[in-house]
Write a structure and sequence with these properties.
By secondary structure, the chain is an alpha+beta fold. The chain contains four helices and three strands; from the N terminus they run H-E-H-H-E-E-H. Strand 2 and strand 3 form a beta hairpin. Helix 1 crosses helix 2. The protein is elongated, with a radius of gyration of 18 Å. The termini are far apart.
């Protein structure tokens, strides 16, 4: 992975770590997992799924009809899982640096904590 992952990609891949999902479930779970901070829109979701499919990070995993409506399911591929793992490591390294800087700042200036 060359650069930071876009937020829709991050949340789609994160949701799919829990197993195959259809579009509506992906949107709902992304909202739940993000604590409501991220709301995936339909157009954004399907554009992301198409792009992720082309990259080999996500694969179609069957269709089924529920209440007369087609549900298309997607799953995370090994390549997608590796990309998500790399992004998690990048985010953790960034957070570690920020946390270290904040701790150093507090150590130098006790009033900075207020």
């Amino acid at each position: 992975m060359a650069s930071e992952m876009r937020e829709p990609t991050f949340w789609v891949l994160t949701v799919l770590t829990g197993g195959r999902r259809h579009g509506y479930a992906l949107m709902e779970e992304a909202r739940e997992l993000s604590g409501g901070r991220f709301n995936l829109k339909v157009a954004t979701l399907y554009a992301a799924l198409e792009r992720l499919g082309q990259q080999g990070w996500v694969a179609l995993d069957g269709d089924e009809v529920v209440d007369g409506r087609l549900r298309r399911y997607f799953r995370l591929t090994d390549k997608g899982a590796a990309e998500l793992e790399a992004e998690v490591a990048r985010l953790e390294a960034n957070a570690h640096q920020a946390r270290s800087g904040l701790q150093a700042r507090r150590a130098v200036s006790p009033l900075a904590a207020f």
